[in-house]
Amino acid sequence: MKKCIAVLAGDGIGPEIMKEGLKVLDTIAKSFGHTFEYKEALVGGCAYDKHGHPLPDETKAICNNADAIYFGAVGGPKWENLPAELTPERGALLPLRAIYGLFANLRPAVIFGPLADAASLKSERLKGGLDILIVRELTGGVYFGKNKVKSIALNEGSVQGEYAVDYMIYSVPEIQRITKVACEASMKRSKKLTSIDKANVLESSKLWRKVVVDYVQKNYPQIQLNHMYVDNAAMQLATNPKQFDVIVTENMFGDILSDLASAITGSIGMLPSASLSETGFGLFEPIHGSAPDIAGQGKANPLAQILSGAMMLKYAFGLGKESDAVEKAIMAVLEDGYRTGDIASAATPKDKILSTSGMGSKVAEYLTKT
Ligand code: IPM
Ligand code: MG
Predict the structure, then answer these.
(1) Ligand 2 mean position to 223 CA, how many Å?
(2) Which of 215, 246, 301, 330 would be a feasible disulfide site paired with 269, CB 3.0-4.6 Å?
(3) What's the whole-model pTM score?
(4) Sheet containing 192-197: order of strands
(5) 190-215, pLDDT tens digit by residue?
């Protein structure tokens, strides 16, 4: 199979973890007889520095002509105070999601057995591992609320000064299409689906709940559906995560809960994501940020980036066997005790603590062994 991949490494640790992601993809290509053509492009702060915009036209052109987008991470203190539309987040990442209609964000939160002791919960609460799939709506809600009013100076009566408004908007079709994605995933798993909202306070959540109930009853009566308010869901995730299988939720709740889920699994450096459009086009990125504090030191964990590559193989190219091979190699590397600093414990022998590139090479080596 021949595929063209837009490679957008971004800022901070992005380039160093991306290098390892590509190393593993190269190994897959060699072992399974595929050709992956990489088209590198600047995105985020580095693109702003060079071209004056975090998402330059030539980057968009490369993405338009690619079969998938492989993304690292963007942002950093250097670009935080730019006008909103030029920041890496609001000028590049969110527009990429919008331009390509990447409404379905799949964020698996899985504990790899050998890492159970790195997890933040007592191991009896995680007996038998953990395997949750968070399905986050990614192109709606408060992130993309129309008529966003950033700040208005009021000058009436006693109220004076600035205020800011962010609209949280959801329409019925937007809720239905993400519910469908969650239901399809749920049907392949335990058929247990939890929809998370704040229907006791928000109108958008009341609509969310009504639409999810109707959609599931009508189309997937086999699915056992339950609902949770987001505050309770945070508590439940932190205390009894094993009650969850597939979670479906709106954009901002999914953002917050997926960081929480990553902490439960041991490290944010382990969690990949896939952002998919209705046609199946996708962007694949780790859920963590650009970690400028450790950039360039060879300390970053590349596994979330590598696992995002595995999701690309599976969801964008239909290469399930290849994707499984990557996951298996990672499992074997971890079982043999290899760790990056973030997932090492006091008991990890020094010679098993690997740098960013050491970990990427180890996964590639195990791939060719198995
Ligand atoms: C994520 C990130 C982004 C988000 C930021 C960088 C805009 O936190 O992908 O979870 O909030 O969606
Ligand atoms: Mg986030």
Answers:
(1) 28
(2) 301
(3) 0.94
(4) 35-40, 2-10, 68-73, 282-286, 272-276, 104-110, 131-137, 246-249, 192-197, 224-229
(5) 999 999 999 999 999 999 999 999 99
